[in-house]
Amino acid sequence: MLSGLLDFFQTTGFALITWKMVIMWAVVVVLLWLAIAKGFEPLLLIPIAFGALIANIPTRGVITAGMRPDGVYETATFKIEGEILPNTTHGNAPAVPAAPGAPHTPAPVRQTLKVDRIVGGLFDFISQGIKLELFPPLIFLGVGALTDFGPLIALPRTLLLGAAAQFGLFVTFMGAGLMGFTSKQAASIGIIGGADGPTAIFLTNKLAPELLGAVAVAAYSYMSLVPLIQPPIMRLLTTDKERRIRMKSLRPVSKLEKLIFAILVMMICILLVPDAAALIAMLMLGNFLRECAVTERLVKASQNEIINILTIFLGTSVGITMAAESFLAPSTLKIIVLGVVAFGCSTAAGVLAAKLMNVLSPNTPINPLIGSAGVSAVPMAARVSHVEGQKYDKGNYLLMPAMGPNVAGVIGTAVAAGYFLSTLSH
Amino acid sequence: MNTSVPPDPATAPRSWRRRLAPLLLCPLALAPSRLLALPEHPKLGESIVYQFNGLVVVFIALGMIWVMMEIMGAVFRRVAVNQAARAAAAPKIAAPEPVAPAPAPAAAAVATDDVDPATYAAIVAAVYCTLGKGHRVVGVTSVVDARDWSREGRRDHFSSHRVR
Question: I want to staple A167 with a disulfide (CB 3.0 to 4.6 A). Which of A88, A162, A287, A349 is the partner?
Answer without folding.
Answer: A349
